[in-house]
TrEMBL record, chain A:
<dbReference type="GO" id="GO:0005737">
    <property type="term" value="C:cytoplasm"/>
</dbReference>
<dbReference type="InterPro" id="IPR030379">
    <property type="entry name" value="G_SEPTIN_dom"/>
</dbReference>
<dbReference type="InterPro" id="IPR016491">
    <property type="entry name" value="Septin"/>
</dbReference>
<dbReference type="InterPro" id="IPR008114">
    <property type="entry name" value="Septin3"/>
</dbReference>
<feature type="region of interest" description="Disordered">
    <location>
        <begin position="1"/>
        <end position="24"/>
    </location>
</feature>
<keyword id="KW-0547">Nucleotide-binding</keyword>
<dbReference type="InterPro" id="IPR027417">
    <property type="entry name" value="P-loop_NTPase"/>
</dbReference>
<feature type="domain" description="Septin-type G">
    <location>
        <begin position="58"/>
        <end position="331"/>
    </location>
</feature>
<comment type="similarity">
    <text>Belongs to the TRAFAC class TrmE-Era-EngA-EngB-Septin-like GTPase superfamily. Septin GTPase family.</text>
</comment>
From TrEMBL, chain B:
<keyword id="KW-0206">Cytoskeleton</keyword>
<feature type="domain" description="Septin-type G">
    <location>
        <begin position="30"/>
        <end position="294"/>
    </location>
</feature>
<dbReference type="InterPro" id="IPR027417">
    <property type="entry name" value="P-loop_NTPase"/>
</dbReference>
<dbReference type="InterPro" id="IPR016491">
    <property type="entry name" value="Septin"/>
</dbReference>
<keyword id="KW-0963">Cytoplasm</keyword>
<comment type="similarity">
    <text>Belongs to the TRAFAC class TrmE-Era-EngA-EngB-Septin-like GTPase superfamily. Septin GTPase family.</text>
</comment>
<dbReference type="InterPro" id="IPR030379">
    <property type="entry name" value="G_SEPTIN_dom"/>
</dbReference>
<feature type="coiled-coil region">
    <location>
        <begin position="332"/>
        <end position="392"/>
    </location>
</feature>
<dbReference type="GO" id="GO:0005856">
    <property type="term" value="C:cytoskeleton"/>
</dbReference>
Length: 350, 413
């Protein structure tokens, strides 16, 4: 209720008068709903160019985690995806390393550039996963790492004097490697994905797909999809986050037909039909990694990098991170109190 | 656990150069928003300018000069150009500069800007929040309308600008600039700019760090403040309808750059929207910082250990909850007390009100009863008398009959 002169409302322009000052002068805004097609050019569409310039200047961050038993070709695949030696093994780590006794988390940061776009890529490896005799709870260090990154981000966001651009170390995408047994998922696979699909985007991938024929591949994929559905595991792209019909149709096709991608990785090039291609040479032929008839690597690459990269980041930020934050702010909601080592080596309890 | 950063070169095309496109596609789907605040005296041409800038009718009922204080009025509309959808909000001051006593006329404007920051901060601090779908109402740019006196800035201009320049991007414009001649205009502009500088008022400078726009932006910065003319009406020139003001001595074309700077303003607003929004966010961060510090939050606690904002907010929330509980209890008690008081009052009143009727009735009843009793008594008496009489009569009759039977009639001599 406002005291003071009441103004008559003009029919043509709907406007709201703000109540007396000193009260909270909040203006309720009623959109006039006029979707005018402007008769003369104004210049609003230049905002697209402005945004493009801004994002090119600031660059992008992308953090991808690879999880799977050793020997499934994780490093090779990641190298193939980013066409450079990004994996841990290639970064100078000892190839002859023993398999660690527990799951370790090793993150390597790279800066790559393409077409004027700078990307800070972090590849997070998880050696030791699934390699022990007793693998109970081996996903816990991984879940802990993921939550630690959310915690770091939250801490910075909650600061009074905070950075203009909060450094983003959150895991945007977790590639989970499934062994190409041809039968079904292993209990470890189900356990991992059940726990982690709620905190991070999981993209299941069938590794070393060159051990299956086309029929075996199709059947295996169907069985895996069924098992994931039966166990209530929502892998990326999650159905509930489809924004509109366009997204839904596109993602439905990927969810129900293409995924999980059956891939082969390689960093060696061979000559095929006069072209140099990435592939694996066997006595019975050369498997071309980027040939869609041979394996689905190209689909995975396009999906993760060329079409859904930004969406992976947005789902991580708008949904997984917000879920974590809400739980944290509601008095820990089941999470153990965190002690996180920051760069300045402070210990703080949130 | 993090190895130092390595710079790698790619051996072939990976494809992440499509990232900006992915981002843009999402932004376009989401739509854009932009909020402009127009501060200026009544009748200086705010609505006309807005209508001319965006080819949309922002007219509303002309306001009176007799408002007791400054109000703000907001209008929102959606504009579309190619695939860009822009939700434009224009907020105008109503009654600015009309009061006899202009002390604190700028306060409602400052309060409004702060209120939008506050709303955003509130959303940001919520536990369950949806920032990505939040409709941002923070003011991205403030167009300050200077009166075309041709002399200098007024005191109220300086006061208002000084109170706004740490909260919002300010672009000064000279309203109704067609009333100043070209020569006077140059002098006027110079005077205004030097006054702004000497009073330490920060206005928005178009960014000059990017080579592609630095040249044109530097030139444009030299045109400040923009001498603008707006018009609601269109005039037929040749075979086109053009926004213009028709005078007996000629036609001032709004979109002609040699007539006025309106087009320059439009161009600069549109091509620097992102920068304006970024700088607004920086002002917001400043507001947020001050606000949280006022609440008693610190980043570094007493022992120089980082204090979590969450702890402070938790403590404050607890405090607030306890306070609320206490107040609730207090109100409950007071309510009960009042209820009891009222009940007692009512009872008493009831008694008093019902008393006369009851007593009257009782009295009447008593009276009736008494009367009845008396009558009964009388009746009884009468009956007794009648009974006695009958008895007597009976006796007499019997005696008479006895006498008449037993004795001859003796004549009594």
């Amino acid at each position: 209720p406002h005291a003071g002169p009441v103004e008559s409302k003009n029919e043509a322009a709907m406007s709201e008068l703000v109540p007396e000052p000193r009260q909270k002068p909040v203006v309720p805004m009623k959109p006039m709903g006029i979707n005018t097609s402007l008769l003369g050019y104004i210049g609003i569409d230049t905002i697209i160019e402005q945004m493009r310039k801004k994002t090119m200047k600031t660059g992008f961050d992308f953090n991808v985690m690879v999880v799977g038993q050793s020997g499934l070709g994780k490093s090779t695949l990641v190298n193939t995806l980013f066409k450079s030696q990004v994996s841990r093994k290639s970064s100078g780590w000892n190839r002859e390393e023993k398999i660690p006794k527990t799951v370790e988390i090793k993150a390597i940061v790279h800066v790559i550039e393409e077409g004027g776009v700078k990307m800070k890529l972090t590849v997070i490896d998880t050696p030791g996963f699934g390699d022990q005799i007793n693998n109970e709870n081996c996903w816990e260090p991984i879940e802990k790492y993921i939550n630690e990154q959310y915690e770091k981000f939250l801490k910075e966001e909650v600061n009074i004097a905070r950075k203009k651009r909060i450094p983003d170390t959150r895991v945007h995408c977790c590639l989970y490697f499934i062994s190409p047994t041809g039968h079904s998922l292993r209990p470890l696979d189900l356990e991992f994905m059940k726990h982690l699909s709620k905190v991070v985007n999981i993209i299941p991938v069938i590794a070393k797909a060159d051990t299956m024929t086309l029929e075996e591949k199709t059947e295996f994929k169907q069985r895996v999809r069924k098992e994931l559905e039966v166990n209530g595991i929502e892998f990326y792209p999650q159905k509930e986050f489809d924004e509109d019909l366009e997204d839904k149709t596109e993602n439905d096709k990927i969810r129900q037909e293409s995924m999980p991608f059956a891939v082969v990785g390689s960093d060696k090039e061979y000559q095929v039909n006069g072209k140099r291609v990435l592939g694996r040479k066997t006595p019975w032929g050369i498997i071309e990694v980027e040939n869609l008839n041979h394996c689905e690597f190209a689909l995975l690459r396009d999906f993760v990098i060329r079409t859904h990269l930004q969406d992976l980041k947005e789902v991580t930020h708008n949904i997984h991170y917000e879920t974590y934050r809400a739980k944290r702010l509601n008095g820990n909601g089941g999470l153990p109190p965190m002690t996180v080592e920051t760069e300045e080596n402070h210990e703080s309890n949130l | 656990q993090n190895v130092g950063c390595r710079t790698l070169s790619l051996s072939a095309h990976v494809g992440f150069d499509s990232l900006p496109d992915q981002l843009l596609r999402k932004s376009i789907k989401h739509g854009f928003c932009f909020n402009i605040l127009c501060v200026g005296e009544t009748g200086i041409g705010k609505s006309a300018l807005m209508s001319s800038l965006f080819n949309t009718n922002f007219e509303d009922s002309p306001s009176t000069h007799f408002l007791s204080s400054v109000r703000l009025r907001a209008q929102t509309c959606e504009l579309q150009e190619s695939n860009v959808l822009l939700k434009l909000t224009v907020v105008k001051t109503v009654g600015f500069g009309d009061q006899v006593n202009k002390v604190d006329t700028y306060q409602p404007i400052v309060d409004y800007i702060d209120a939008q920051f506050e709303a955003y901060l509130e959303e940001e601090l919520k536990v369950i929040r949806s920032l990505f779908s939040y409709h941002d109402t923070r003011i991205h740019v403030c167009l300050y309308f200077i009166s075309p006196t041709g002399r200098s800035l007024k005191t109220i201009d300086l006061l208002t600008l000084r109170s706004l320049d740490s909260k919002v991007n300010i672009i000064p414009v000279i309203g109704k600039a067609d009333s100043i001649s070209k020569a006077e205009l140059q002098e006027f502009k110079k005077k205004i700019m030097s006054e702004l500088v000497s009073n330490g008022i920060r206005i928005y400078q178009f960014p000059t760090d990017d080579e592609t726009v630095s040249e044109i932006n530097t030139i444009t910065n030299g045109y400040l403040p923009f001498a603008v003319v707006g018009s609601m009406e269109k005039v037929k020139i040749g075979n086109k309808m053009v926004r213009a003001r028709q005078y007996p001595w000629g036609i001032v074309k709004v979109e002609n750059e040699s007539h006025c700077d309106t087009i320059k303003l439009r161009r600069m607003l549109c091509t620097n929207m992102e920068d304006l929004k970024e700088k607004t966010h920086a002002y917001y961060e400043l507001y947020r910082r001050c606000r949280l510090e006022k609440l008693g939050c610190r980043d570094i606690g007493p022992e120089n250990k980082p204090v979590s904002l969450q702890e402070v907010i938790e403590a404050k929330r607890l405090e607030f909850c306890l306070e609320m509980e206490r107040k609730e209890e207090e109100i409950k008690q007071r309510f009960l007390q009042r209820v009891n008081e009222k009940a007692a009052m009512l009872e008493e009143a009831e008694q008093q009100a019902s008393m006369p009727i009851l007593t009257k009735y009782a009295r009447l009843m008593l009276m009736d009863q008494e009367e009845e009793l008396k009558l009964e008594e009388k009746k009884k008496l009468l009956e007794d008398e009648i009974a006695q009489f009958i008895e007597k009569k009976a006796i007499t009759v019997s005696i008479q009959s006895q006498v008449s039977v037993s004795t001859p009639v003796v004549s009594l001599k």
